[in-house]
Amino acid sequence: MDIESILKDIEQLPPFPTVVTQAMALLDSPDTSAMDVVKVVQYDQAITANVLKVCNSAYFGLPRKVGSLREAVIRLGNQQLKEIILTGTVVKYYKNAMDGYALSKHDLWKHAISTAIISRLVSKKFKGVDESSVFTAGLLHDVGKTILDGVVDEYFSQMFALVGEKGYSFTEAEQEVLGVDHAEVGARMGELWGFPKEIVRAIRYHHAPQEGADSDPTTQAVYLANILCLMMGIGVGRQGLHVRGRDEVLKQHGMNNTDLQIIMAGFLDEYEKVQDIIMLG
Amino acid sequence: MPSGSNGSLCAPNGKNNHRGDDLNIIVDISDIKVSNNPDVTLVTYSLGSCIGLAIYDPEAKVGGMLHYMLPDSSISKEKSQANPAMFADTGIPALFKACYKLGAQKQRMVIKVAGGAQLMDESGFFNIGKRNYAALRKMFWRNKVMITAEDVGGMVNRTIRLHIGTGNLNMKVSGQEERIL
Question: Which class in CATH covers the domain with range B5-180?
Answer without folding.
Answer: alpha beta
